[in-house]
Amino acid sequence: MTLSQSLPQKLQAVLNAHFIPHEPGIALLVMDAGKVVLSKGYGMAYTRKPMAITPKTAFRMASVSKQFTAMAILLLEKEGRLRLSDPLSRYFPELPAWSQQVTIRHMITHTSGIIDGESLLTNEEGRMLPENPWVHNLLDTNYQHLRQIEDRDHLRLLQATDSTYFVPGSQFRYSNSAYCLLALIVEKTARTPFAAFLTERIFKPLGMKGAMAFQPPAPIPNRAFGYARDGSEKWYFNDQSQTSATLGDGGVYLSLNDYARWYSALLNDTLIPIKKVQETLFSVAGPQHRYGAGWFFDTEMWFHSGSTCGFSNFVIAMPASGKLVAWFSNRADDYAAFRKIQTLLIEEGFLKEAVWHWHEQTQ
């Protein structure tokens, strides 16, 4: 079904009712047949100054960033500079023996079984554990007071693990650590920083002028800052956490305008034939659902979400019809309005089903 003429107005009515102009908000992009039919911002990118959200506002993508990490790996594979069958130990011989059984294919499809590095630093609620001598000595720093965790810290943490969750390739288990290691493999193979590789090989060629990987203290132009609600439902500044600086699993910032260019490139196979890649490079992520190249997907839909301390993102694509819904929010756990938008899109026949069960697999 094509986009009805009244749907953009119905979407805007829902968003106008949900978002208050002076509070943090969202940016919404809707494409049909590969063309933009709605691209609009609601609310503030930063509440202390008059910085309204627009289609040019750059949001932290969180796990939506995995699409770009996967693309970086696939570009290097296309050039013959690495193989998906390469074992992890080829790149990091300092890792324990289990790394000999883990391949790049396992890592990119979330079937590696690699221990979650963040679990060694946080409790079940994601809160940082009190400092302990083991972590302090391993990372050469008091991480809670001096700096954020980086991709290379996941490598150091995993050096101290003696096994994987399961035999690599035997199960699906979402892994941020695996994608942090993929970024390090890109750096080692391309002999250039991961952020620079993304800029030179993906962002610039596609005209994604506002896209970049997070590299503090370098500024991010036109960025949205993250917020969360306290117990009294008031918004407070919550832009960064100790785990917000990793790149491979979630460190890309970009805008609606940038994402529209990215999606058009995927539809047109500008960098690689992504749909053909997914026919062979995937894992079974649930009933009728697969994961490959940075997307959950089935025969009709692609999906990914990205959640962090101050941002909530959802991307739903239907490549056969060129449809796309991209929702970028600088609000933590911002799900209520998205659910309403999702319901409206299903009622209007634009989406075929809810995607919440896919999102839960990233948690």
Protein model, in words:
Helices cover 31% and strands 18% of the residues. The chain is α+β, with helices and mostly antiparallel strands and 363 residues long. β10 (283-286) and β11 (289-292) form a beta hairpin. α7 crosses α8. The radius of gyration is 20 Å and the shape is globular. The mean pLDDT is 90.
Short description:
Helices cover 31% and strands 18% of the residues.
What keywords describe this structure?
363 residues; 13 helices; Beta-lactamase; globular; single chain; 3-stranded antiparallel beta sheet; 8-stranded antiparallel beta sheet; alpha+beta; 2 domains; 18% strand; 15 strands
Number of strands: 15
Mass-distribution shape: globular
* Count of spatially separate domains: 2
How do the helices and strands follow one another from N- to C-terminus?
HEEEEEHHHHHHHHEEEEHHEEEEEEHH
Strand order of the largest sheet: 2-1-15-14-13-12-11-10
Distance between the termini: 32 Å
Level of helix content? 25-40%
SSE-based structural type: alpha+beta
- Tally of individual helices: 13
Low-confidence stretches: none
CATH fold group of the largest domain: Beta-lactamase
Tell me what the CATH architecture of the largest domain is.
3-Layer(aba) Sandwich
